[in-house]
User: Which sequence fits this backbone?
């Protein structure tokens, strides 16, 4: 079974178009369900620091560095961000550190970033280093020149831009762990009835999903998760939720038997529209 990671972008924070929020109380209910919970956070997620510190013995952390100023001392910046992060949470190390803006590797002075990350790993402050991506335009070159342990990317029933046979084979041949996020497109796929004019182009896809769901007697959540479960190359699935009850429902669906799912393919133009970086 794929390893589950709890995404914390909405912990104590109204997140995304739907303003989803996971309260401290619901977060604690989730992490009490097992000995250790792997969570996905970021250094800039200020609203989650306090609750993470209070529960540091129950979690393992994947975190992300913010955008770096390539004109200034990169070693100083990265160490300051990273070690302040550790101090605030009360940890001596974390599981994984990701570069949130990996395109910076190819910009002036950007090549200096990778040795700093590998040094943190060598000194055992992190177990893994990697990159959080939105698109795959530099993927092959990035891995060849700055080999990571982990690649994190968005994947859902609508967005399959990373999953070409070439990409997946290359990543697996290089023994890179694959984490997928945004499996519900920040919750939008679970709330298709709330689609506004900005996402009106999704209506034709929502009708296909609803028709498939009705025909196969399964919910929209199961349609989305069935797609993810059928991607055998995935190592870890990052899930976001609003409550412990929703978390349990997602886990139950993931643990269920693999089933079919509606085949949906967005055009290149439409894919650009579901890039959260471009949302107002």
Assistant:
């Amino acid at each position: 079974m794929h390893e589950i990671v709890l995404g914390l972008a909405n912990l104590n924070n109204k997140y995304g178009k739907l303003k989803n929020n996971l309260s401290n109380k619901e977060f604690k209910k989730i992490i009490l369900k097992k000995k250790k919970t792997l969570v996905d956070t970021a250094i800039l997620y200020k609203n989650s620091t306090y609750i993470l510190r209070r529960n540091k013995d129950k979690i393992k952390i994947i975190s992300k560095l913010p955008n770096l100023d390539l004109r200034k001392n990169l070693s100083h910046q990265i160490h300051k961000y990273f070690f302040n992060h550790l101090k605030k949470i009360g940890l001596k190390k974390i599981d994984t550190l990701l570069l949130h803006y990996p395109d910076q590797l190819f910009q002036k002075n950007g090549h200096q970033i990778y040795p700093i990350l590998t040094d943190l790993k060598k000194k055992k402050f992190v177990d893994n280093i990697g990159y959080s991506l939105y698109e795959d335009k530099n993927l092959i070159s990035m891995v060849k020149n700055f080999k990571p342990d982990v690649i994190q990317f968005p994947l859902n029933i609508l967005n399959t831009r990373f999953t070409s046979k070439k990409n997946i084979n290359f990543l697996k041949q290089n023994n890179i762990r694959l984490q997928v996020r945004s499996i519900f497109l920040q919750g939008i796929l679970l709330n298709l009835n709330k689609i506004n004019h900005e996402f009106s182009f999704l209506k034709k896809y929502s009708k296909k999903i609803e028709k498939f769901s009705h025909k196969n007697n399964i919910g929209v959540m199961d349609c989305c998760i069935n797609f993810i479960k059928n991607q055998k190359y995935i190592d870890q699935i990052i899930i976001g939720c609003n409550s412990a009850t929703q978390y349990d429902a997602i886990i139950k669906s993931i643990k269920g038997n693999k089933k079919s799912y509606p085949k949906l393919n967005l055009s290149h133009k439409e894919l650009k529209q579901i890039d959260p970086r471009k949302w107002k």
The radius of gyration is 19 Å. DSSP finds ten helices and eight strands in the chain. The chain has a mean pLDDT of 92. Residues 94 and 141 are 27 Å apart (CA to CA).
